[in-house]
Fold this sequence. Notes:
The protein starts with a strand and ends in a 6-residue tail after the last helix. It has nine helices and twelve strands. It folds into two domains: 4-109 and 285-298, Nucleotidyltransferase, domain 5, CATH 3.30.420.40; 127-275, ATPase, nucleotide binding domain (Nucleotidyltransferase, domain 5), CATH 3.30.420. Strand 9 (138-144) and strand 10 (147-148) form a beta hairpin. It is globular and about 60 Å long. By secondary structure, the chain is of the alpha/beta class.
Amino acid sequence: MEKYVIGIDLGGTKVEACLLDTDRNLLARKRALVEASKGIDRVIEVIENIIIEGSEGKQYAAVGIGTPGTYIPSEDRIYGSPHTPVYETPGMIKRLRERLAVPLLIENDANCLALAEFFASCKGKYHHVMAVILGTGFGSGLILDDKLYRGSKGGGGEIGHTSIDIDGRLCECGRRGCVEAYLSGPSLSRRFFELSGKKMKPKEIYNLYCQGDPMAVRLFEESCKIMGEVFANAINIFDLDAIILGGGVSNLPLWYEKVPAYIEKSLFGVPRGKMPLIKAKLGDSAGVFGAAFLALRELGYMDF
Ligand SMILES: [Zn+2]
């Protein structure tokens, strides 16, 4: 009998479900508002409903959920989800497990994106890859030796909160100089406001950059340099084959035109030539696919 799995991308405002068969074909997809502010009971109800809708009456054999924060298996709990603290509620995952009565897998959303994008564009070609989400934050996930790297607690592969300047900008996490405080969408807008006094979205600033606006040029030149340094650090530490760039702010062409040269300048040790900076292929579908892959792995249909 054909088996099916459900993937869930549980974000801060939206939740999305997809139904895949064991050959990773997409059979259904549903979205809803998560209403996290209404509390844990409502969150659980919304997740249950989206699973029922997304499954379209088919019997699913496992469910994977991708969400912000770090899932710690020994406690069966999510930590480090500052924008959606309700997901950190002790017992939330247990309650979901009891209601679903099939295997339930939880993973960080950037790790889910990394998985899905790795299978979409790198599998078989590259084996050591970092995938970055450049959007409202700066998150990342790591594939080493074709395996998703979780580290000792499950928080492995996260580069957004490493510091590039110990006296630098204050990050939302409370530390100074984090990459996210420079390169996320809101951070780009904030830095441009400081330079120009104009409140604009990254895409609008990019349009000014294309017209040669000196402040926009300054902002993006500096940002490409920072991004090149950050990616070179990751490559130097993990000996990576490639970097994948996704998320809402990843569509600006200048990242792919300018950043590789900055990466090349800061590589250390091993001769590598030009490092591939790969544009993510799946758009905002990556997270939900990666979550479903967790379920397929649990059932023995995928290996990573
Ligand atoms: Zn930070």
